[in-house]
Amino acid sequence: MWWTQYASRSQNIPVAIAFSGGTDTIFINQQEGGGKWNILGLYHFIQGASYDITITSQPGPASTCADAVRLAYASIPSHTITATSGANGSIDPSGTVTVFEEGEQAFTITPNTGFAIDDVLVDGSSVGAVNAYTFPDVTADHTIEASFAAVPSHTITATSGANGSIDPSGTVTVFEGGEQAFTITPNTGFAIDDVLVDGSSVGAVNAYTFPDVTADHTIEASFAAVPSHTITATSGANGSIDPSGTVTVFEGGEQAFTITPNTGFAIDDVLVDGSSVGAVNTYTFPDVTADHTIEASFAAVPSHTITATSGANGSIDPSGTVTVFEGGEQAFTITPNTGFAIDDVLVDGSSVGAVDAYTFPDVTTDHTIEAYFESEISVIIDNGDPETTNSGGWSISSATGSYGSDSLWSRDGSTYTWNFTPAASGYYKVSMWWTTYPSRTTSAPVTIEHADGTTIFNVNQQQNASQWNGLGTYRFDSGVNYEITITAQSYPTTTCADAVKLTAAPPPPPLSNEQMFIFPGYASIDAREDVAWWLETMGAVEVEDNSLWTYYIPSRNRNVEIRMGNSIEEMRQALTTEDAHVLYFGHSNYGLGGLFATQQEQLRQEINDIRYIDDDRIFNYSSKWVHVNIRGMRTSQAYPYWWPNFQDGTSGIMPYDFDDPNGDPAYNYYITYQVPGDSTHYKIENSRHAPIERFSDWGGPAWYSPDGIEPDPTIPDEQQYFITNPEPWKPSVEVVGDWTQSQKFSGYYLENYLYAPRGQGDNQVKWIFDIPTAGFYRLYAWWSPSSGRSTDAPYTIYYNNPDTLAEENTTVRINQRNDGWQWTQLGDEYYFDAGEHFVMLTDDTATGTVVGDAIRIEHADAPPEVLSADFSARVRSGVAPLEVTFSAQILGEDSEILWDFGDGTFNSTRTYISHFYDEPGVYTVTFSVSGPLGSDTVTKTNYIVVGENEDPDPILRAEFRSSWYQEGSVPFEARFDDMSSGNIVAWHWDFGDGTTSDEQEPTHTYTTQGIFTVALTVTDADGTTTSTEVKPDFIRVNIFDKAIDNVDYPKAHYRRKTLLFVKELDIDPADFKYSRLLYVGCDSGHYFTETFQRGTMFYSLNTNTTQDLPLLIYMRSYLEGKSDHQIWQDLQAIDPIFDYYYFDKPPGDQPLD
Asked: Which 8-state DSSP code applies to residue 856?
């Protein structure tokens, strides 16, 4: 090889040389030998073959040179190896074999059948009875000679008795050391009785192998008859069973039967040995050891009718009344006459489009199908035709999809008119074609002149572009010129003018009238202005200022009177108006009902005069129980003075456990309804066929009875449906006298403060607490400062003498004009014996008002407070759409939360929430919390995996949660739930206090106070792959540390929800007369479908995060004449939490089924 030298050349470069014996790699130093030929070695090559010599450059900064290679022929000495073999075998290769100097040569020795290698001599010396030998590095001639010897053989005599066989049979020869297998097969009706090997039984085996045969053997098989049994198979009328009659089955065998009903009949029951096994269509008797019977009976299948009709100029097949058996399907074909096209097909009164075929699947009720046709004789007027005129400037649009060669655009009031003079009087369907563009208007008015007057139709040119869009059917007289005019809308939008089509059509349905009532209730925004603006842009005619409009729907030939209300009485009137269409938007108020607010209350987002469960301002149309987050009602809605009492002063809180003198606890249940004329209580199902639970966030099972029976709390198996919380509880605050709740001055703790003017000590606030362990404690107070506050507010601490344990008290006077908005220590440390103690604040002050807000008690050695966020989900992967239920866990005081689900959606109201992922993908989820101690955020990357067609493989991921509290006093028992995914075989917990556990779901007791980090490591089935989740500041254990606000919330039944009962509804559902209802509010499906069970209802199944947009989208889509399914799709596009339900149909006939 030739190379050049350079300072950067590598000193260790590999060169691979392919030759006849393989590939050899040598290493060269290019710091030397440059500019000359360097010998790399001597190799053998075969004539005509191709070989590679390859140099590989080395990593920088070193360099490598590739220049030239020279191959010079060299004569290599050769040697011969003479290979011979004796009789009864061979050697390969044999004869005289030539080998080049330093080459190698391998030989294979093979004996004939019945012989073995006796010896192998190399250069006359034995190398043993080897079957292969290689001469390495040949430098001289050699010889190799193989000899063979006969192998001894033995015989195995194989015999069988009657009624079976052995294979092979007779005398079988086996060479010494070999093996021989035998198969034993009984005849039909017989079984192997025994197998004797060399006269000894090896059992009733069906195969036997002699291994390593070194002597003669015998094998003998015998057989015995198998007992048989009979199965008598019979069937009643209207069906058959196969096989039938008396069927013989041998002992231990199995027999299958197939049951087939005649047309129009179904299997009613199948009896096996007299006992029902259900209406099965197959049954198999396994391991038959006795006689049996099987009997099938049949019953007529219920049938339903589908009434198929067609308008003029076409047909539907089949037509008329078509009978379909229950659960069957029926297909229809729609065919227009020559010169006509399908205009529309209505199924059960709703349009499914201009389809030429339709199939009813799984028929469980009667149906109708109607087909309508339109003439193919049309008049099309394109832009630029002689029949068009315009005003203003119209330019050719660059948008694609025009009718004909182009479309036009303009703005700011320009008009474009298509003139139509019919040759024959009659009805014509008017259609328009436009192109879309990012700037296109969503509401272009089209004025249509016709024989009965003028109609204005608004079109949305952001949708349905490049197709014919119907604007209604109208009557026209022959010889009269009619104008169809579009008016361009203002900058920055543009309006398109393209083409108009008029098609001869039958008369439209008779004109009908509809009353629509829209109620923008109290919510986070005031929707009234949005409703008015959308109606205006759609071309609705305003009759009364911001309260009454009219709108014409051409496709339904319907005039709609639209009223906007703002009171309970107006909504009550709407719900009881015949065939009314009611739309409501507002807070659901945890299911208590809707309400209306003044403009000032809407702006302030606070209503101060709502105080009771049965408050006159709340329209109660709730279920019998509601689960309210009391703090949420007071702080988020916000009704700061609401409390779970009735106006008569009684409490509305449900019992927490059984045997309560006030009654039984509430229970979770599936919300049910009844179809008119049907006594069955059906579950209401969402679009994913999941039944709706009333308290779905509880986490326990839901009760259901098709007969409407309630669960019995005295039956142990039914107690699981009741929501109980037997944990002990007592008040932590007592307020005596006349104190006023207020939020006037900021800086209060949590939600408000109490105040009272100076007095004589009659007004008192007492904060009560239980000390678990005797010792010294610190006390703090919190207040919002103001110049009018007391300068000597008296806090009296009742404590114990550390030596005598006698009760003592000290009054600490605080200047509440300063040092507020924080925890301020009250004096020194105080000694408390274990048990109940209190701190009392009175109005006994010389100046100003006294503020009672909050106090805090902590052990002198307590760990610091923390705020820690965490969350988990049991299901984290699956096929789209995937429902995932998230559960948050918060350690410390929080005031605000925020979920980021990773798909562009958020929530700030729920710590336990179900969320749907509708698109395949991998999602990162974040949960944030903030409060008096600051904020904390936890992000779980690639946490949710959603597949398109099949479940993704579960990823190994450690995951856990606390199954109870995260904070408590020594000794604190913490319970942990494993929520990991993957093929896990081992768990290892580190509790952060020096102890560990290998249980899957351990319970651990903390015996010292502190803040502890908990970790879980899981191991996959391969034993080497692990995943670890570490949760810092997850457990806080103390002797005592507690903050007590002036608001003492009642005990929750679960999480933060307190269950309340409601009294008589404010409206009797029997008085409902409406036909359609849209309820846009958080979780309105869970809260209100138990009450609003009439006609068609659109509702939500989660928190509404899109404000009033669903109300506006629904209103526009409906007024555009869209079907319910199309309206639902429009709602799903903005927030996939909406469904709709027909309460006059059973679940199987629902539109989303």
From this structure: E
Mean pLDDT lowest among 392-396, 1009-1013, 1125-1129: 1125-1129
pLDDT tens by residue, 1030-1084: 999 999 998 888 899 999 899 999 988 999 999 999 999 999 999 999 999 999 9
CA distances from 921 to 562, 880, 917, 958 (A): 43, 9, 9, 21
pLDDT one-digit tens code per residue, 845-866: 999 999 999 999 999 988 988 8
813: nearest Cα among 831, 830, 797, 801: 797
Residue with tokens 């049979």: 169
Question: What CATH number matches the domain at 386-505, 3.90.1150.10, 2.60.120.260, 1.10.3720.10, 6.10.140.1580?
Answer: 2.60.120.260
Alpha carbon distance 585, 376 (integer Å): 44
pLDDT tens track for 663-683: 999 999 999 999 998 999 999
Can you give the pLDDT at residue 637? 80
Q: Are residues 248 and 230 in contact, defined by beta-carbon separation less than 8 angstroms?
A: yes
Report helix, strand or coil for 347: strand
**Maximum Cα–Cα distance across the chain:** 132
Spatial separation of the C-alpha atoms in residues 896 and 886, rounded to whole Å: 17
Of all helices (H) and strands (E), which one includes residue 224? strand 217-225
Say how many CA atoms lie within 13 Å of 436 toward its Cβ: 12
Confidence of residue 1152 (pLDDT cuts 50, 70, 90): low
Question: Rounded to whole angstroms, how far apart are CA atoms 633 and 690?
Answer: 29
CB atoms within 10 A of CB 709: 10
How confident is the model over 859-912, as pLDDT tens digits? 998 898 889 999 999 888 888 878 788 889 999 877 789 999 999 999 887 787
DSSP state string for 78-103: EEEEEEEE-SSEEEES-EEEEEETTE
Q: Quick one: which of 75, 20, 15, 73 has its CA closest to 49?
A: 20
pLDDT at residue 893 in the model: 74
| 82: its two tokens | 């003479």
Q: What is the DSSP letter of 602?
A: H
822 and 754 Cβ atoms separated by less than 8 Å = no
pLDDT of 1153 reads 47
Of 230, 251, 250, residue with least CA distance to 293 = 230
Q: Is the pLDDT of residue 1096 over 70?
A: yes
Topology of the domain covering 733-859: Jelly Rolls (2.60.120)
Question: What is the C-alpha separation between 578 and 1076, in angstroms, rounded?
Answer: 11
Give yes or no for a contact between 827 and 799, defined as CB atoms under 8 angstroms apart.
no
Pick the CATH number of 79-150 from 2.60.40, 3.10.28, 2.40.50, 3.40.50: 2.60.40
> Do residues 750 and 933 make contact, with C-beta atoms less than 8 angstroms apart?
no
* Cβ neighbours, 10 Å, residue 736: 12
CA distances from 1023 to 419, 999, 1019 (A): 82, 17, 6
Distance CA 1048, CA 838 (A): 14
Q: Output DSSP code: residue 1148.
A: G
Task: Report the DSSP beta bridge partners of residue 559.
Answer: 513, 552
Coil, helix or strand for 25?
strand
Q: Which of 303, 319, 373, 304 is nearest to 343 (CA)?
A: 373
Q: Quick one: which H or E segment has residue 766? A: strand 764-771
- Residue 949 has φ and ψ, to the nearest 5°, of -120, -20
HSE-CB of 564 using CA atoms within 13 angstroms: 25
Q: Give the C-alpha separation, 717 to 721, whole Å.
A: 9
Q: Taking residues 571-583, what's their average pLDDT?
A: 97
pLDDT, tens digit, for every residue of 70-84? Answer: 998 877 778 999 999
E strands in 892-969: 896-900, 906-907, 912-917, 921-931, 934-947, 960-962, 967-969
Q: Residue 159 CB: number of other CB atoms within 10 A?
A: 14
pLDDT of 386 over the 60 cut: yes
